Amino acid sequence: MGVKKQKRKLRNFLLIPEFQLKYALYFILFSFFSASVFYFTFYIWSLHFVETILKTEVASPEISHVIDLFLKRLTEVNWLFIAYVLLSIIFSSITAIVVTHRVAGPMIAIKRVVAEFKNGNVNVRFSFRQRGDLKNIEDDLNDLLDLARKGANLNEK
Fold first, then answer.
1. Is pLDDT above 60 for 154?
2. Which residues are CB-neighbours of 74 under 8 A, at least 6 positions away?
3. 69-114 residue pLDDT tens
């Protein structure tokens, strides 16, 4: 019988909520701003297109019909834009929380080791996840602890 995999909950991903939600907001604002710039550029181009047709063509029933259809399609594009923004907000939030989760875990580990070291546990060591983003500086941080430990020993003598 296999080991049952524990389901993750949102609170398990929000290790440092104020940090992670701040960056989620940045992701959301960036995607909303990008989508808005694209949409308004398209919208202004569309209105300019309609104005150009109205100025150059004699107002005929066919042209009026085409413009009416175009404006109806533009209304549909508005709804597509709203749907895109909502999906973008959802995906940006998820991406931001996952990305910041990979940083928040090591931040907590660093704070814990520093607090233990300050409380007198000089044998504490840094240990990050094997695939973690800060694994490459683990040895350097442990060397720093060794130097601090040596300095503490010299002061005691």
1. no
2. 43, 46
3. 888 888 888 899 899 989 999 999 999 999 998 889 889 999 999 9
Question: For tokens 């949102």, what's the residue?
Answer: 10
**Which structure tokens are listed for 139?**
């040895």
Helix (H) or strand (E) holding 124: none
Residue from 5, 1, 18, 27 nearest 99 by CA: 27
Distance from CA of residue 157 to its chain's centroid? 50
- Contact present, 89 and 32 (Cβ < 8 Å): yes
Q: What is the pLDDT of residues 118-149, one digit of tens each?
A: 898 888 999 888 887 788 888 899 999 999 88
Show the DSSP H helices in 14-137 as ranges: 17-56, 61-118
In degrees to the nearest 10, what's the CA dihedral of 83, 84, 87, 89? -110
- The distance of Cα 147 from the centroid of its chain, to the nearest Å, equals 37
Cβ proximity of 127 and 109 under 8 Å: yes
